[in-house]
């Protein structure tokens, strides 16, 4: 399959490598010139579960991609949500009438932007529990296992998503169809809404945070706000499942020593975060439904304060 990975950061690099190794025709599109230059010069490098690998995968700056002769059958979105509209505008010439667009961004409400560029029948909304990190321009660190839940937002449903699921699974990405993707997205958002902001503010990996005596109380306070907002929208969540997913992040033998993507963006790379589309989204929806969200509001404010102190851009 001809695939565009729109956003060649840590997760985009993982998916590009795995799909490329499964013999798909993959190109990367990104806006970080140093990263683009490194991949062009040395290939996309990765520490892949302890093995050092390098693969030559074409990569383009989003400002030049409109000149590329490539008719995508599938686009996988991995941009930062603040960059989503600009990325879709850039790759619009490569999106055909039958191109499927799979959105795997963190956060809530991205389909409202995507439908301005792609018919709803071609939009797949999903979330992924894979993890990844960047050690520097052109070098990813990939470890652990993961999965993808996705749903076709159009009327065709599962049958229209099956070809994409098969391609992902041949690459070992463990995709499965969900009849209620919003529940999966909110479940993932609960993980991001705790691990990302907390580890960023506390300068901690997930395992160390989980071993503090106050971690459970903080996590439950934040998650309860996500549940209240989800319940107002008739989105079903189960507290034991969500807490189990969060607790699994503390395991030092799997992903516990990992610093979440928000930490990598802000603390390491001094880049603005997606906090407004995770905890901040719960604050906005809380106001809409008249639901108090003091913990999400405070964490959002703390992350924004940290952005300003660091001078994130």
From TrEMBL:
Record GO biological process: pantothenate biosynthetic process
List the SUPFAM superfamilies hit by this protein, alphabetically: 6-phosphogluconate dehydrogenase C-terminal domain-like, NAD(P)-binding Rossmann-fold domains
Q: Which GO terms describe its molecular function?
A: 2-dehydropantoate 2-reductase activity; NADP binding
Can you give the residue ranges of the Ketopantoate reductase C-terminal domain? 180-307
This molecule's function is given as:
Catalyzes the NADPH-dependent reduction of ketopantoate into pantoic acid.
Query: Would you identify the family this protein belongs to, as annotated?
Result: Belongs to the ketopantoate reductase family.
Name it.
2-dehydropantoate 2-reductase
Q: Which organism is it from?
A: Enterococcus phoeniculicola ATCC BAA-412
